[in-house]
Amino acid sequence: MIRRCADFTAFCAVLAALTLAGCSQEGFQVETPREVSREVAAMVNGEAIYTADVEVEAVARGLVVSGAALKVEDEAYKQVLDQLIDQKLMAQEAKRLGLEKDPAGMRRLEMAQERIMGNLLVESVVAQQVTDELIDRMYAEQVRLQQVNDQVSVAHIVTDTQEEAETVWLRVQAGEPFESLVFNHSNDSATRMENGDLGFVAPNDLPDPYPVVIANTAVGEVSPPFEVEGSWRLVKVKDRRTEPPKTREEMRPEIATFLTLSEVSRILRRLRTEASIEKLSGQDYKPGSRPAAPAKALTGDEL
User: Fold this and answer.
1) CA distances from residue 87 to 78, 84, 170 in whole angstroms, order as listed
2) What pLDDT is recorded for position 89?
């Protein structure tokens, strides 16, 4: 849970009504703008369905991860293509019957376009704001909050160089006991005779990035090498007296969603402040003057 925002769940529920594209179990997946492929996947009564359409739909349905290769022989590709063919056939039949000219149908099409335009705005703006650097920073904050009362038994190996630390880590991964490597490779005179043991510690009392490293290391496991105050170290988590916080990968979807919704909320606050909005009580609509269009395209900073 993102402790920085107590009403995070309610916040998500409200803004979820925007039907933002790409929200799945992996969090908001915002694709980098790219040139749309014109490669045709199928022709339906002379109208094309493009492979790019199949890929976008597969990502939206959570069948594949954004950016992953989707091949024609993949079951997900075949499933989505068949559904898009059915969708195309039904749309063609609706047009044949003139349903798109019905006033109610026209209004629903307008509303669908508005939703899509909102999604495009989110993709173009939030992609610039929700960065791995920002996610890492917020994850570190969450780890500190969740480890306030933690007590973790750890041991470490301290080396002078990254190369030496990586060599030791590879030997641990190959099956050599961590404790057997401490005496010959750790230059921490205070712990090398004790198998590198630091005892039970509060992770937040150790220098960065110890708290994050400990949070991402399971009991009995050894962390990859990391740099602290000019030396390189490996940490073994031996025991915990409390439940470990979620790892970065486990918490990443929550953080990405939180940052995305926060950015959307900020954009909406500005747009509402600048807009002319009049809530009516069922009166018939009478066209009036429309606000002038912006003189230039809005950039990410302006939004």
Assistant:
1) 14, 5, 53
2) 96
